[in-house]
Each structure stands twice: as structure tokens, then as C-alpha cells.
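Appendix B. Extra example for self-study. Work through it before the problem class; the solution is given directly after the inputs so you can check yourself.
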Amino acid sequence: MRFVVLLAVLLAGCATPPGTSPESKPEQPPVVPATPPRQENIAIAGLMDSARAEAAAGNLPGAAASLERALRIEPRNPRLWHELARVRLKQGQHAQAESVAARSNSWAGDDKALRAENWRLIAESRQARGDTDGAQAALEQAGASR
Amino acid sequence: MLRRRPKLWKVVRLALLAVVLAVAGFTLYLDIRVRSEFEGRRFALPARIYARPLELHAGLHIAQADVEDELGSLGYREAPPEGDSGWYSKSENSLVVALRPFVFWDGKQPAKRVTIFFDQNRITALRDTGGAELALARLEPLPIGGIYPAGNEDRVLVRLDDVPKHLVQALISVEDRSYFSHAGFDLRGLARAARSVFSDKVQGGSTITQQLVKNFFLTPERTLQRKFTELVMAVLLEIHYDKNEILETYLNEIYFGQDRDRAIHGVGLAAQFYFGKEVQYLNVAESALLVGMVRGPALYDPYRHPQRALERRNLVLREVRDQKGITPEEYASARGSPLNVSKKTGTGTTPYPAFLQLVHRQLRRDYDEADLRTEGLRIFTTLDPRVQDAAETALAKRLAQYDKDKRFGPQPGLEGAVVVTDPQSGEVQALVGGRDPRYRGYNRALDAARPVGSLLKPAIYLTALSEPARYTLLTPIDDGPFVWKSRGAPDWQPANYDKKFHGMVPLRTALAQSYNAAAARLGTDLGIERVLDNVRRLGVDRPLRPFASTLLGAVELSPFEVAQMYQTIASGGFRSPLRAIRDVTTQEGRPLTRYPLAVEQVFAPEPIYLLAAAMQDVVREGTAQGLNRFLPPETAAAGKTGTTDEQRDAWFAGFTGDRLGIVWIGYDDNRAARLSGAGAALPVWGDMMSVLAPEPLALARPERIELVWIDPQTGLRGGTSCPGATEVPFVQGSAPRERAPCSGAMDAAVEVVEKSVERAKGWLDRLLGR
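Solution. C-alpha cells for the complete assembly:
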């Protein structure tokens, strides 16, 4: 009987090798220090640079995350909202792109060039959705903002 | 006889075979259990929930003391430094922080040293050790709880390599000296254990492997059969896995006591809980204390029974010395050291149960309950502990005061709830579900649906202001007695709070003074459905009954729903779903889900701007004037008070440049509270915000809004020559054309000049292509 138990134990023991769990260590490349323009918050400038680099590398969610991080620091910075609208457009999130561009416009104040850019972005987004009339109207707004 | 013999033999043989088969089958069954459970998910790991990380950068408004507080709650020790990171040292106007490494949702942040320079509650610069300026430094986020598996088991997994040698040595010396040589059981121990089944003494002699099997697979009853099962499984375990694997699992499994409702398991969490440090930094004495606790975590609880725990620790140390695990010198110095346990900060599964409930609900939309409780997910939330503490303190303090003023006696006291969000992003910064913020039960912020009273009025005025040709901030509204007749319902005659009627009043005054008759008349004129439609557009999802009384707040909403509604006003007509979560990653840090900032423009900017400006008047000169006791006038906060029938509910909803807050106060059983929004809810809001030093509210003025000087006497165009003239915003073309008599030729001329300058500027811009 003891023999059978032992046999069963041994047979079972051969059935599977012990498991191994690989350890993964995500590494991040060192952040290259940005050379920020004077007068501007260097934290914002740094995050904007990262967002652009991420977007250029095709990492759109990463770019959006960097811009959101910057927006937590400067929620009224219309440039940041504009960049975020750009990322949303690239992501194909047209409704978001339009709303975020409108948000940028709401903080744009006297920055007419930025307003025009936002309207062009809205036009592009509407065009992409097949709303030609809406796109035309937005382009007119872009012209009026100049 | 001769015939019978073989038959008996056959029976015996068959019986033996049956027994053998049964035992073999049982063993096989145990083997499958051992392998599947040990191999598969070895530990159910709770989802770990974090507050927002504190993001430091030049220009940030924060006091040095607040950063020190945050570091303190993260378990950073003030120098002397211990280990490579996890400490800080301070001097006047600067802090050196040795940041621990941390895996954020966007990657790993290595350990680094940062010097932070302060000047009067503001960070002026961040520098690394080489003196180079840093753009940003992110402190690791504060863990604020978890979503726990059955029994609220909590643990932090460690690898054997991370556990100090002296801890392992102490464990082996005390619990299982022959661990590295036995096959899962120890014969002498077994004999002792066998005796203990029949006597009633606490058994010893279980090997580490057996203890692990017992904790892992078996119920705590002590029977012979269970002992046998334990033994077989221990042997099976030893056959399948090597000693180090079993030991590592054991170290992660052992129970180290309770933190209220949370069970502390494993040396990783025990090191953090009792000593506030990572396991690799435990010294000899600390390790011995933990090993001593294995036998009886409650008995040797260093907080409740420090003397007993100390004696036990020293016993362990002696044992280790006798086994030559430590030198006599090490022994002497460890024996002489105090217990050194960290100040008890344990708050059970979470200090912020109300906020965690919100997180849990939002997570359940995307994740399986089982995964949340076992997969060790890391949840990064939006909670700002500083805001949360300010909200909790303000509510508790005021409620205690109101209860005392009333002397209602021992019956259940007043209750309340607070929600604070970031108006730009919809992130929830704080959530208080009742006066006892640690209570894990009824969450009034989310689940108490109460009549909102006047808090619904802004929707009426928003609807009106969306028609600039008919309504401006100055349009006269009739606050005379009002009767609403509808078939099949009794007449509805809203009265004013002061029991008076005020005749014709400017629209913004009707809102500022929260006149009921005026609001009811205006709302019914505009159309109940139209107003309710705007309530829905502002973000209220609940079905609204299309009655006139709904307009004056005969609708029950939770403070959280009210926050969603006011969020849309505070953010300029852009609706953002209120979010408590930013990111979810796996245990190792691989991103799983992002909860991005989402905005939807649901109102034109002009009427929202006018409404927000009118809500600033509510604070400047209306029902919320009391706020000026708490905040300087330049904060220019916007708000609305709400009080319901018989003063059962007191509300205040308001926002500054950087925060939106909703406060509700009332009794759970709906008794008349005899407290008003302005008298009871507003002071809570004021206390909370004044602690947080809010940013002034600077509304983004839409292009199509112009500011016009108005003579308060006539409501006509005025100028500096009119006494008390104020600038009032209008949608372009909607301001009165007529001039007040007090307005001189000079004012008109100034206006004409201003206009032409404006026009010339626009022309020049166009010419220069700007």
C-alpha cells in the first residue's frame, strides 16, 4: 500500500514541471532635459515637448496623457487644449476634437491666430465626419478670426 | 471450508485493492489541488488604490509644511537617511527629498534626489543633485486602500532575494530547524503532533511546509484525517517545488495580525505596516520581532502587548544566536534596541471609504469583481488627500457645532455630505459621505437623494439667458404672487423665503435673492419642459417629473449628481463626466485602461458666462453674502444656496477658479433641520475653501460678450457720472440703447472713442494678418 501511495505521488510528480514566473521590469528611457523658452513654465514646456515626441512616435494615448498632466498644472492654457484637440483628431475622436478645440477657444482671449487654428481644426474634424456644411461654416469662422 | 477459503482471500484482496485505489485516488486528488492552487494564482492580491501623486514644479502654490506632511504620510522619514531613498531633510526654505522608485502608469520613475526651493508658500525651483533645474518632480501617490479578497487579506509580495538573510535565519531557527533537509515533515515533530491530537495542547512541530499547507488549503479543525491530509500535501509540495519556492510562498502567506478589518499577510506588508519600510531594510531586531509574531500575532502584538512582544523577540534572538545565526555582538546590540515600531497609522482597509466606494463603482463598469479582488491591479485615482481632509474637518466641526446649538439630545445627529471636483477636468478631489468619514456604510454623497430646492434655479435662468433678445441680466422679472393651475392637481402657489413679494426685479437680482415667485413665473413662461431639458443637458440623468414644482427643486438628487450639474456651469458649458480614476495598470505597471479627460460642449459660451456672472452676484450681494466672511472678495466665487420645505435640507453649491464644491446637510430621517443653505451649508463650504486658499474665479469672457456701464437707478446705459454705476455683461447687441439721465455727454464720448479704438485694432490686426 505504501508503495502504491509513493508510486502515485511520484507519477504525479513527473506530470508537470514546477512553474516559473518571469519577472518583467519596465524600463523607461532617461528623460532628455528640455531647453524651455524663458517666461514659460518649464514644467509645461517639458510636458508639451514630451507630448509632441509621443505623438510623433505614434503614441497618441501617451501624448494625450502628457497634455492632460500639463492641463492639471495650467488648466487655462489655450495652447494645451489646442494640442489636445490635435491629438484627439489624430485619434479619430472627432466629437472630442471639436469640443476640446472649442474649449481652447474659450480661453484664447485675444489670440486670434490660435482661434483661427482651432476653427480650422474643427473644420477638418467636421469634414472627416462628412459634415461638409459644418466644415464650411467653421472655415468661415477661421477666416473671421483672422 | 475448502471452498470458503479462497473466497475470503478474494474478499480481502478486493478490499485491499479498494483501499489502495481509494488512497491513490485521494492522493491524486490532493496532488491536483496542490498543483493547481499553488501553480495558478498563488495569492489573491487586492487591487491597490492610490491618491493623486503630488506633482511639484516651479510656480506651484504650496507651503513647505504641506510637502513635509505629504512626505510624512508617504512614510518618508526625516533624516538620518536609511537606505537609498524614502527620507528627506529640511532646512529653511528648502527640502532635500530622496524619492523612492515608483512605477507610474506612464513608466518607471527611478529613485532620485530632488532639492525643492520655497519662497513664501510657492516653489521657486527644483534641482537635482548636480544642481541642474528640473521641470517636474512627482512624489509617489499615497496608497488609500484596496479592493480586497475574502477576509480582507492584504499583502505585498516579496521575492526571497529581497528578504534579509537574518530574517530567514531567525524563521528557520524558531519554526523549523531542519527545513532545508526534511521532505516536508519532521518525524519528531510528527510524533509530538500526533500526541497533541489526543491531548488538547497547542501543537508545535509542524514544519514550515506543513504550516503553509495548513494555511493554504485546509480549514483550521484538528482531526487525525486532516493531519494526514496535511502530511500528504506537504510531501507533494516538496516533490513539486524546491525549498526556496516554498519558503518564498510561506513568507508571503504568514499572517501578522489585524489592522482593524484588514488582515496583514506576508513579511512585505508586515515590514511596511509595523516599521514603515521595505522588507530589505529590516534589521536583526525588527526581523526577530516579526518572526516572533508568527506563533501568535495577537498574543505578541507589539502595540497592545509591547512587553510580551519584546520578551518574545529576545527569545527569538537568543535562539538565533544559539544556532550561530548571529554573532554575540549582533545579539547584544539587537537585544538592547527598543521595539521601534512605527507610530500606529493603520486605518483598516481604507481611510476614505466613501471615495473608495465611488472608485469601486466606476471600476465595476469595466472590470470583473473577481479580477478587482485578486489580480493586484493598481488603480490611480484623483483623490487629493489635502482637499479630502479639509472637507472632512469642515463638515465634522460644523455639524458638531449645529448639534450643540440645537441641544436635540441623544437622537441621531445631523448628517452631511461634501463633493469637491476640479471644474476644468471633472476630477473628483474629495468625497465625504457623512459626519464620520471613516464609517463604511451609507454614502450620502452618492446615495442620499434629497430635494435640491433652489439649486435647480440656475437652469431656469440659463434657459432665459439663452435668448438674449428677450432676456438679459437686467430684464425685469415679476416677483408678484404667482398661482399655477393645472388640471387634476391642486393649485401651486410658491411663497418666498422671507414671506414677501418684491414686484418687478432685475433678473440677476431675482437669482441673487433666490426669489421663488419670480423663478416660478419665469420658468413656467419659458416652458417647464424646456427648463428640464436644460437640467438634463447640464448632466442630470435622473427622470424629472414635468411639474411646475420641479422647477423650484421638488426633485431629489444626490450631492454627486448636483456636482455633475454645477460642473457644467463651472466649466463654461462644457460637460465632463465626473471621474475618480485616471489610470489602471497591472501589478507590474502595464497600462490597462486610461480614463481620459472628455469634454462636450453642451451650451453656448455666452449664456453660461452670464449665468456664472450672476452667480458671482449671489455671493457678492445675494443669499450667499456670508461667504465674504471666509474668502477675500477678489476670489469672486460663484454660488447658489438651497433650502427645502421646513428646512429639511440645507445646500450650498459653489465654485472658484480651481474647485467646485457641493455641501448638503440634513437629517437622515428627513426631520425638519431648521437650518438654511446660507446658514448651515455655506459655512462648511467656506471653512473648507479658506483652508485650501482657492484661486480666484476669472471667467473666460466669450468674444460676443461686452461689458456695458449701467446706471443702477434706471437700468439704462450709464457712465462714471452715474452714482453706483456698474459694468454689466451683455451678449452683443442686447444691452439697453437708451442712456440714463445721469449719464453725461462725456460718458457717451468715452464710449464712442472706446468703440472706434476697438474697431481700429481689429482692422489693423486684419491688415497685418494677425
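Self-check: Chain B touches chain A through 62 residues (CB under 8 Å). If your reasoning did not lead you there, revisit section 3.
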